[in-house]
Design goal:
This protein is of the alpha+beta class. It folds into 3 domains: 93 residues; 118 residues, Band 7 domain (Tetrahydropterin Synthase, Chain A), CATH 3.30.479; 81 residues, no CATH class. 38% of the residues lie in helices and 28% in strands. The chain has 7 helices and 13 strands. A 5-stranded antiparallel beta sheet has the order 6-5-8-3-12. Strands 1-2-4-7 form a 4-stranded mixed beta sheet. The longest helix has 41 residues.
Length: 327
Amino acid sequence: MGLFSNQFANVVEWEEYRDDLLFWKWTNKEIKKDSRLIIKPGQDAIFLYNGMVEGIFTESGSYTIDSQIIPFLSTLKGFKFGFNSGLRAEVLFINTKEFTCNWGTSSPIRLAAQGLPGGLPVRSNGKFSFKIQDYNVLIEKIAGIKQMFTVDEVRDRIKGVLDGLLMKWITKVGGDVFNLMANSVDIAKGIQEDLDMELIGIGLTITDFRISEFTYPDNISKRADQAAEYTMLGDMNRFQQVNMVDAMTGKGGKTNSNASDMAGSMMGMQMGMMMANQMVGNMANNMANSQNAGAQQSGGAVPKFCPNCGTPTNGAKFCGNCGTKLV
C-alpha cells in the first residue's frame, strides 16, 4: 500500500493484491511532491478528487505523479506542491480481468408436471463470467461508499435473483421438464440477458452464462433408470417379476426395515405393475391386430393345388377334379 512520511515522497500502489477483489481504493492519504504511481498488469488506476473522476490510467508502469500524472488530470492540471502540503486525493485501483464463478440453485425450483400436484422439484448448477464494464457507474453506485468490492458480493447479488430467472426461462422456452438439458442453451442465453440487465446498473456486465446440469430427486432419477432398464428386458413376465422384487427388497437386495420404506416400496411396486400391465396390454393388442391383418391378407388367396387331391387349381374357387371348395 502507499507509504509516505511527512514531506517525503510516497508510493501509490495496490500491493496487497487479491484475486477476489474487483477494486481497491487508496484513500485518506496525502500525495507529496515526487510521489510515484505504480500500475501493475491487470490494473487500471482512477484518480478521484472530491468524489469526481479526474483521470483514468490504463497502462501498467511507474509514473511520477506531479510531472506525469497531474498534467493529465481534469481540474488539477495547475496544482502546485508545497514543501509541507500535498494533494489529498483518492486513487481507485480496478481489477480489469474477467471473473468466473460457480453457481447453483439455492433451493429446488418446482416445475409444473403432469401427475405431480406439487410440481417437479429440480436443481441446477453451472458457471457464469463477468467483468467491470462502466467505471463511472461503478464509482457512483459502489466505489463511492466502499473501500473494496469482492466477487462474493457479486455472487450474492446474482444468487438472489437466479432461481426466479431459471423458473422464468424454463417456462418460457418450454419443452419436456424431464429433459431440460435439450433446451439448456436457450435457457442460459435468456438468463444471461436478464442478469446483464441486473448488473449493468452497478457498472458490471455478464460475459458468459452456462448450465452444466439439471438434477432431479433421487427417487425420480431411480425410476427413470429402472424404466430404461426394464424396457431393455423385453420379456413382460420377467419385467413384472423384477419390478416386484425391486420394490419389496430394494435394488441392492436389502429388506426395508421400517414402515415408511415398506409403504414406499409397495407404492413403487404398484406403479411398476401398472406400467407392466399397460405395456403387456399394448403388446397383446398389437399382436392381435397383426394376426388379424395377416388373416385378412391370406384369407382371400386361392391355393395353387387342391389340398384334397393335389390337382392344379388354376385360380378356380372349386377343384375341377374332386369339387373341393378352395376359398
